[in-house]
Design a protein that fits this description.
It is a single chain. This protein is of the alpha/beta class. The protein is built from 5 helices and 5 strands. A 5-stranded parallel beta sheet has the order 2-1-3-4-5, with helices on both faces. Strand 4, helix 4 and strand 5 form a beta-alpha-beta unit. Helix 2 packs parallel to helix 3. The longest helix has 13 residues. The radius of gyration is 14 Å and the shape is globular. The protein starts with a strand and ends with a helix. The relative contact order is 0.18.
Length: 138
């Protein structure tokens, strides 16, 4: 299965890639919001599951307009923005959302969406990531 993995922390990216590939998955790893946005809008969507980090730095802040970030006003919530973008393109792609700190407003904003599993980023590999991914096989 092809999995989109978006995380700007290199150590985390490498660890998750190793886990996914060891379990037979193909990983499209992206380390920034801008490239992730482009991947989400590719037609047809080239992945079956998305793993998105909540907080990321921007490669080039000048590249984004306010229209690109309709609900997330800070970089701490850029992953929430990616979820909104992905849901506009395909409301059923399973999403695993990685967060070290999930705010109440994040939970409220994401509540209407289905197929979202939130994992504490500090425990992503010990939370049995593969069990979550396997539950979405279709």
């Amino acid at each position: 299965m092809i999995i989109l993995l978006v995380d700007d922390e290199l150590a985390s990216l490498r660890a998750i890639i190793a886990t996914l590939e060891a379990n037979g998955h193909t990983v499209n790893a992206i380390d920034n919001h801008e490239d992730a946005r482009r991947e989400i809008y590719r037609k047809p969507i080239p992945f079956r599951i998305a793993i998105l980090d909540k907080s990321m730095r921007l490669k080039d802040p000048q590249e984004l307009s306010l229209d690109d970030i309709p609900t997330a006003e800070t970089l701490e919530r850029i992953g929430v923005t990616l979820i909104h973008m992905l849901r506009k393109v395909d409301p059923k792609v399973p999403i695993i959302f990685l967060s070290g700190f999930l705010e109440d407003r994040d939970r409220v904003e994401l509540a209407p969406y289905s197929h979202i599993h939130i994992i504490d980023k500090g425990n992503v590999l010990t939370t049995n990531l593969m069990h979550v991914i396997d539950s979405y096989r279709y």
